[in-house]
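step 3/5: co-fold with (4S)-4,5-diaminopentanoic acid
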Amino acid sequence: MLNLEKSAAAFAEAKTLMPGGVNSPVRSYANVDCNPPFIARAEGDKIYDIDGNEYIDYVGSWGPMVVGHAHPNVVKALQEAVTRGTSYGAPTVIESELAKLVMSVYPSIETIRMVNSGTEATMSALRLARGYTGREKIIKFIGCYHGHSDSLLVNAGSGMATFGVPSSPGVTKGTAQDTITVPYNDAAAITEVMDKLGDEVAAIIVEPVAGNMGCVLPKQGYLRTLRDLTAKHGALLIFDEVMCGFRASLGGAQAAYGITPDITCLGKIIGGGLPVAAYGGRRDIMQKVSPAGPVYQAGTLSGNPLAMTAGLETLKIITKEPEAGEADYSRSLTLKTKKLLLGWQAKAKEAGVTIQAHQAGSMFGIFFNEHEVYDYEDSCRSDQESFKIWFKCMLEQGIYLAPSQFETLFMSGAHSEEDIDRTIAAAAKAFQAVADSRC
Ligand code: HOZ
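step 4/5: write tokens
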């Protein structure tokens, strides 16, 4: 039995200090009926709590830790950088270095603006789309989560799905009415809406691989439909690749599916675990951003030298040319993820539990569902009770997973074959626990 005594005490105190005891909702474990381990440190693919428990980590800080925790190159670069000061609020060369590296992998990004979080990136991208097109309406997909700015907190995934809150109080009717929501992966539904309202729409924003209703892949041709409809109606197509960037493939979903968006939002990995995100795209659109143009957006800590350093070192590792005979970084993550999921599927089958397993490169997840999962409704029909049992049994065995069916798991370069084998063995017990609970 996992001893979480110190974590429980720390959580009790935190609840007196912060709403729900946390600074971001899902990590509270509120929907899995247990206390969250309080984390003391992390290294490689392992995370350690204040009770001394060790876990194999598949959350990876919700995506950024693609090279593992405390990678020596990242640590060394940060140690050197910190001695030069922590923030200048002034231009630095390292911002351009990171920009060039990102743009070399994402050719659709001709000009980029660094910000501090995915929320800032998507919020700013929408403002830009509205400023560029002179239109007010935006379309988002039910169950897609693009951070917590007002216009995007409508029928959103992630914590809103986890806690069953379709929209947030505090978002005005005026704001909400400019956000049109449509089911994900339904080409007929989006075509109908665009045929009716397309000329009023500034942008369609989409997670091209959805990661906040669980991991849900786009159907064949779906992203092409979005591209064609936006082009037809003079609206912009925004890919929110905060999660799937550098994960669905090195070049993200846009490279994996061969679709070029007008604007891309990135985050997580490009900060290597420090707070960084970015939005960028076609030069003519980005030239509308202040001070090149009139669409205002700013940030004291944007382009922060420590954050740029962590991002740059992380991207250098994952973009490095492989040695002869070696798989490239991204491909090796994909292969490890595949091995893990095949193992989980086999163990689920042995236990007589049906799951749907989804993978896009190094992001992945499972649903306890007899049927295929293509959208938020399908995701909601998954068996939440089974998920809870599975999650807790995995945690007990030292496997750290996202505490919600409406989130995604991530593989890192630090996960060893041995740890993947251990994770598959743990899954055998967890699926059996699910099967037993159904007897
Ligand atoms: N919104 C993130 C997950 N998709 C962060 C969750 C958290 O830290 O609570």
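step 5/5: annotate
The chain has a mean pLDDT of 96.
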